[in-house]
Every structure is written in C-alpha cells, then in structure tokens.
Recover the amino acids of this structure.
C-alpha cells in the first residue's frame, strides 16, 4: 500500500510537469486558459479588426464616413445602402448571385435618411443566395430620419414668453431653440391631426397622415406640454380630468372636482390645443382638436365630433398647451415660427437630443424576397418605419424606436421579426398579415424573441404590440410590456401565441385584455398557450389576462399562468372554446367567466349576432373550413327573422361545445377565491368540470409568490387533481447574444 501511494504521487507530479510544459510552450489546447498569454512582438496572431468583423462569403462594405468613389471593398467602402443595392444589381446582371449570398456590412455611424430605402424584386436574393444588410456592430449603424439638436443651441426664453407660463419655477427653467437653423419649416415639422378609433367620421377618417415631429432625449419620447401632468402611478385616474355635463356630441363641462382646470385654461392661448380622451367608452380614445374653451360657462367645445359620443365620467387630458410646460421633459413646438420650447431633463447638456422629421418609411420592401435586415438601428420617422411585402423577409437583431406611427407593417409569407427591440412607438409595434384565411393556408410568419415596449403612445388605445391578420402566424418567446391598452389582437384562423411574457399593460383602459379578440367566428383554431401574463390593468380599470369578447369562437387557451389582474383571468362568451390547465392567481374578479351574452343581451342579438352570422356564412362557402374545423359547416347563422329552435346548440349565438376544465385558481392572501361565473346555457351545452380553487395564505402551494415566482410547489394540491405542470422556466425571451 505504501509503494502504491508513492507511485500515485510520482505519477501526479509528472502529469503536473507535463501540463505546465504544454502551457508554457504555447500549445493552447482545449482546456487551457490563455487569457494571460504573452502578446509581445513575437506573437504572430492577427489583430482583431474592431470596425469590420469577419463575415463568411461575399461581402460588400459600406461606411457613411468613407470617401466617395469606393468599390465596396474593405479598403474602399461604399457610402450608402442604395449604392450597395446598385452593386448587387450589377452582380445579378453579370455572373449572378454567388452561392451563399451577399452580406452588405455597414460600419457604425449615422446614415441620414432623406428618402425611403426601397427594395423591389430586382433587389431580391434566393434561397441559396440570400442577401443580408448587417450592422458591423449591433445597432451601430443608425438609419435615422431624425435631426440631432445641439444642447448649446438652446437659449433662455424672453420675459414675454415667461409671462405665458403658469408655473413660476418653469419660467426660469424652460429653454428654446430655433429649428429653422436645422432647416426645419412648418411643413417639415408636420402637424397634429385627429387620430384613433373615436375620431372616425365620414369627412375625416381617423389615423390618416403622418404624426408631428417629436422630441426624443436619450431615446425616450418626451411629452408634449399637457394638463394634467402624466401621473407616475394611478395612471387610470390621476392622468386625466373627468367630464360632467355634456351634449353627447362635442360640447362638455367637467365634474366639480376638476373645475380648477378652467382656472388654468383662462391663462391658455387656445390656438391649436388638443385632447386625448376616453370620451364615450373607457376602451376607446381619440386625439381631437379643441375649438374653444369658455372659462365663464366652464365649457369645452371640440373641433371634431367623437365617434362614440361623449358620456358623463369620460376622461381626457389637454396637450400642446405652451402655458403648461412645467415638468422636466415637457416640450412645445411653435410650428408657425419653427421654435421648440423645452423644460430640460437632468443631464440635458450631455444627452442625445433628436427631433423626428422624416415623413415616410425608412425601409420599404415591395415584392422582394430573401432579404434580411440584421442589427440595424432604425429611428426618427413621423410615419411608419418599415414596410415588408413579399416573402422570406427578415428583421433580426434590430432596434426600431422613435416612430410616429407603426414600427413594422408586414404582408406576405415567411416573414420574420426576431431578436429585436421595438419601443417608443406612436401606434402599433408590429402589424403582420399573411396566409389565406379562406383556404386556411398558413403564412409561415413568425414574431419571435423580441422586446416590445412603450407603444401606443399617441392615442392610448386601439393600437397594439402585435396585431395579426390572415392565417397561421406564430408569436413566440416575446417580452411585451408598458402599453396603456391591449397587447396582442388577432383576426383569422390558426395563429399560435406561445411562451410570451406580458405585463404592465392595460393600465389606462377598461374592459380590455392583454390578449384580446372579439365579435368573430372566422378566427377558429387560434391557440394561446404557455404564456406568463401578470400585473394587468390598474385600479379602476377592468382588465383580463385573456379576453374572448363578443362571441369569439373556436379558440384554445391552455397552460397559461395568469397572475394579478384587475378583472377576470379569462373571459369568454362565444362557442367552441377550450380553456384547460391554466393557473390563475389573484384575479380581482372570478378567475374565469364564461357567459352566454351573445344569446341574452339585446345589443348582442341585434348587432354582434349579425357580425357573427356574416362570418359563418362567408367561411361556410369555403370547403377547406369544414375540413380544418369539423362541424363548422353545421353552424346555423342567426339572422333577423330566424324562427327555428333558439336552444339548438348549432345556432351561432349559442355558447355550445365549450370545454372549461382542469384549471387551478389560487388566492395568496387568504381571501376566498371567487367562484367561476357561467350561465346555465354554457353548462348545459358544454363541459365545465374539475376546476378547483385554493387559498395559499402561507404560500405553501406557491413558495416564491412574494417574489413574483408563480411556480407551484412540487407537492401542490393542484397536481393531485389532474393539473399538468406548466414549463414556466421556458417562458419569455431567450438570450441569444
């Protein structure tokens, strides 16, 4: 035994010497740490090119700072994407695209956009030879339609201008800048216009034109001067004033508690003042102009009627009011004289200050194929940022921000938006359409692993992080947060929404949901699964985690975790819906509501039922629908004059064939969990079973709930009652770089 120990000691010593010799000899080996390697002149390793990363295949180099006349090589780059397009067209016309395609590599820098970068079929790649426009450093190549303002160009305001401000502190803080020095005029600054769902009328449809120039400091959208100021908490109430008496068209007063508004208004110059208002319903707002304010009669007259009228308790705030420039980050633009006024933010002198000015798409692809935008930073337009129309088009690793209207409009097949950040957007983040609804042909479109936040910043409702149309788009592993209204809406069949995390949405609106669709029977086959939906709604705002509204049918929701919502966890009132194996924690209302409202409420019978019938009649003309969704052809459209059996389960307005089972409900503070809400007809015509509720006051079932971890304990009662584990650890964004 003693000799054996000596042998082992000698062997270990020899191995140590050998490994030391290898480490000193320069043989790196697979497991040897070389971070402290000698880098003297004898080291022959080529230095890393920090400007141009190594890219395989054919590369065309572009550098906005390069000299003119380059040929696209590393030593003589081209200067713009348009020049690279021309070169690629020449290559295609000559020997053709090389195997493996072409990468257009853009050096970091600011590429000023004065006209849309258009891609057509002439610019397309192929499956074996795709074309990629790639930033050499992620988000380092900035395609901007904005104008950078110099902090040193801001100057104090005059005494006459100070006198127009209400807040005394603001008089000494507010600065101004002459935008004409940057080439801006009344026309290029743009204007505010009626906007949103409630601004519709026969003479002025809502949502037309491009939005006004906006100010962004360090990438964050600043606020046009407003009253009352934006509240940091209780955004449902404190950010607005409430309407009292009104004529239901365009004239209103305010509730007594808000009459001091007219004390302020007496000091306002009332030219070009606007409101954002939830005037008729708390789920629909509009941007509308103020025609006049009578401070004696305490009345406001709008310059544009509201589509849904004006109701008592409607909410609004005034904006574009110079006198109310009283909070850091608020600004006002005198469009006639091209003067911008700003209450500076902290560290303003060292901040990036950008005014959006371009009034068209930054990038537009029409009829193009096999093109990727990779790692670009796209910003600074008053209009939509990107239009994708074609097939096999991809937005990857990009940042899209500082946008007046929509970030991305996409229409086609095999379109992908992935690994990107989309934020500071006036309207929708992504609108995607593709596939064929009539033939139930999926688009192959994908929205994957994106961070989407701070959208819908102009109208405050009816604009979405993701808006789906067509058939068969997958929305997966996205993080979606900080939106005043609903996050995801869909139209058409067979969409899949999975593994997403949604939170802090619906905080300014009512009767809404993080996932929402409604009043449709042509969306069959869409599935919401394995999503983490939490912190939805606000005090005073009734918000659901998943909302199947106004007769929506043919949906499936399973494996979702819904935590801390101000309404129901899931609300459904249609037919052929499956709701299984969802974990719902701390819903202010019942965890699930399943109703027969399309059957029982008069307005549903006369209005919504008509819509449902139209969808059924249209889709039943397509044989593919009954093949894809067996039994769909047997649905009986409810129309005026129907004289059949109102209890027939196949009548389109009946809540038939719904399945609600194996769902688990928890309250974490000891309260008694509300029972599910369901009508007798739902129970009679469907399956409602094995839905269990628990109290978890000691967090025995949910040990990490105080830290927001909704993972059930391994021995949770839910698992003993047929509940299947939800893969919470797989939900959300995937770090890939």
């Amino acid at each position: 035994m003693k000799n054996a120990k000596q042998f082992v000691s000698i062997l270990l010593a020899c191995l140590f010497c050998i490994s030391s010799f290898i480490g000193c000899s320069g043989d790196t080996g697979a497991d040897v740490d070389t971070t402290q390697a000698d880098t003297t002149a004898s080291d022959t390793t080529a230095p890393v090119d920090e400007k141009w990363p190594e890219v395989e295949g054919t590369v065309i180099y572009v550098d906005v700072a390069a000299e003119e006349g380059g040929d696209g090589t590393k030593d003589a780059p081209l200067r713009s994407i348009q020049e690279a397009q021309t070169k690629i067209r020449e290559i295609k016309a000559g020997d053709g695209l090389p195997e493996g395609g072409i990468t257009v590599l853009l050096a970091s820098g600011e590429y000023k956009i004065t006209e849309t970068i258009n891609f057509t079929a002439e610019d397309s790649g192929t499956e074996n030879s795709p074309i990629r426009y790639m930033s050499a450093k992620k988000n380092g190549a900035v395609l901007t339609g904005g104008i950078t303002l110099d902090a040193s160009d801001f100057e104090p305001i005059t005494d006459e201008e100070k006198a127009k401000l209400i807040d005394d502190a603001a008089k000494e803080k507010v600065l101004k800048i002459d935008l004409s020095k940057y080439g801006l005029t009344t026309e290029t600054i743009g204007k505010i216009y009626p906007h949103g769902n409630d601004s519709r009328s026969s003479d002025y449809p809502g949502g037309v034109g491009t939005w006004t120039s906006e100010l962004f400091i360090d990438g964050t959208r600043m606020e046009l001067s407003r009253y009352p100021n934006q509240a940091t908490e209780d955004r449902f109430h404190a950010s607005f004033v409430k309407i009292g008496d009104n004529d239901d068209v365009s004239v209103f007063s305010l509730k007594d508690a808000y009459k001091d508004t007219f004390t302020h208004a007496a000091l306002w110059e009332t030219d070009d003042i606007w409101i954002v208002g939830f005037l008729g319903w708390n789920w629909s707002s509009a941007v509308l102009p103020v025609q006049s304010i009578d401070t004696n009669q305490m009345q406001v007259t709008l310059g544009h009627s509201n589509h849904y009228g004006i109701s008592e308790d409607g909410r609004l705030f005034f904006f574009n009011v110079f006198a109310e420039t009283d909070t850091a980050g608020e600004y006002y633009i005198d469009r006639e004289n091209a003067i911008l006024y700003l209450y500076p933010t902290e560290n303003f002198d060292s901040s990036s200050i950008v005014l959006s000015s371009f009034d068209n798409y930054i990038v537009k692809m029409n009829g193009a194929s096999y093109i990727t935008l990779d790692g670009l930073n796209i910003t600074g337009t008053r209009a939509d940022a990107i239009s994708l129309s074609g097939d096999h088009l991809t937005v990857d690793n990009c940042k899209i921000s500082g946008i007046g209207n929509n970030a991305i409009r996409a229409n086609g097949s095999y379109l992908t938006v992935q690994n990107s950040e989309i934020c500071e957007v006036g309207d929708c983040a992504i609108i995607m359409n593709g596939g064929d609804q009539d033939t139930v042909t999926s688009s192959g479109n994908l929205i994957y692993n994106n961070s989407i936040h701070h959208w819908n910043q102009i109208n405050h409702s009816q604009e979405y992080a993701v808006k789906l149309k067509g058939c068969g788009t997958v929305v997966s592993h996205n993080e979606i947060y900080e939106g005043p209204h609903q996050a995801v809406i869909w139209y058409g069949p067979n969409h899949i929404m999975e593994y997403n995390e949604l939170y802090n949405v619906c905080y300014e609106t009512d009767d809404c949901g993080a996932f929402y669709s409604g009043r449709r029977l042509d969306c069959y086959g869409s599935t919401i699964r394995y999503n983490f939906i939490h912190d939805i709604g606000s005090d005073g705002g009734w918000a659901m985690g998943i909302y199947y509204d106004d007769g929506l049918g043919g949906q499936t929701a399973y494996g979702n975790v819904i935590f801390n919502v101000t309404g129901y966890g899931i609300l459904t009132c249609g037919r052929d819906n499956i709701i299984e194996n969802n974990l719902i924690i701390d819903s202010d209302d019942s965890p699930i509501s399943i109703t027969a409202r399309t059957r029982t409420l008069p307005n549903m019978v006369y209005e919504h039922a008509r819509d449902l019938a139209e969808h059924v009649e249209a889709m039943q003309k397509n044989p593919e629908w009954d093949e894809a969704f067996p039994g769909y052809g047997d649905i009986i459209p409810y129309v005026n004059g129907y004289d059949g059996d109102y209890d027939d389960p196949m009548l389109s307005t009946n809540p038939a064939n719904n399945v609600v089972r194996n769902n688990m409900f928890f309250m974490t503070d000891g309260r008694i969990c509300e029972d599910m809400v369901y009508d007798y007809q739902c129970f009679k015509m469907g399956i409602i079973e094995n839905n269990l509720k628990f109290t978890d006051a000691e967090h025995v079932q949910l040990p990490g709930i105080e830290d927001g971890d909704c993972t059930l304990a391994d021995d949770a009662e839910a698992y003993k009652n047929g509940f299947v584990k939800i893969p919470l650890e797989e939900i959300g964004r995937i770090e890939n770089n």
